[in-house]
Amino acid sequence: MSKKLKVTAIGNSTGVILPKELLEKLRVSRGDELMVHETPDGILLSPYDAEFARQMEVAEGIMRRRRSLLRKLGE
Questions:
Q1: Which domain holds residue 52?
Q2: Amino acid 52: pLDDT
Q3: What CATH number does the domain containing 66 carry?
Q4: Residue 2 located in a structural domain
Q5: Is 23 buried (19+), middle (13-18) or exposed (0-12) by CB count in 10 A?
Q6: pLDDT digit of tens for each residue in the chain (75 aa)?
Q7: Residue 1, domain member (yes or no)
Q8: Has residue 40 been placed in a domain?
Q9: Tally of domains within the chain
Q10: Cβ–Cβ < 8 Å for 31, 48
C-alpha cells in the first residue's frame, strides 16, 4: 500500500491524519497509541505493546552497559 499523507497542523501540534483503511490494517482506533520504529528501509508504525516496550528498554540498557562484550561477540 502506498499512500500520500499530508503533514498538517492539529491544534498547537503537527500531525498526520491516517486514513481509515490504514487504521484498520494496523488494528488501532482513535485514542490508541502507536510505536514508531526506524528501520534500514524507513519508518515502521505498529500498535503500541507495553510488554514489548518494556523488553526493549531492558535490552537497550544491557546493550549500553555491555557494549564491549557485544562487540566482541559480533566479531
A1: 7-73
A2: 84
A3: 2.10.260
A4: no
A5: middle
A6: 788 999 999 999 999 999 999 999 999 998 999 989 899 999 998 998 888 888 988 988 988 888 888 888 888
A7: no
A8: yes
A9: 1
A10: no
Side-chain-facing half-sphere of 66: CA atoms under 13 Å: 11
pLDDT at 38: 92
Grid coordinates standing for 35? 510505536
31 Cβ partners below 8 Å, 6+ apart? none
CB-hemisphere CA count at 13 Å for 24? 4
Residue with cell 499523507: 5
User: Distance between CA atoms of 40 and 47, rounded to whole angstroms?
Assistant: 20
* Contact criterion met (CB below 8 Å) for 48 and 37: no
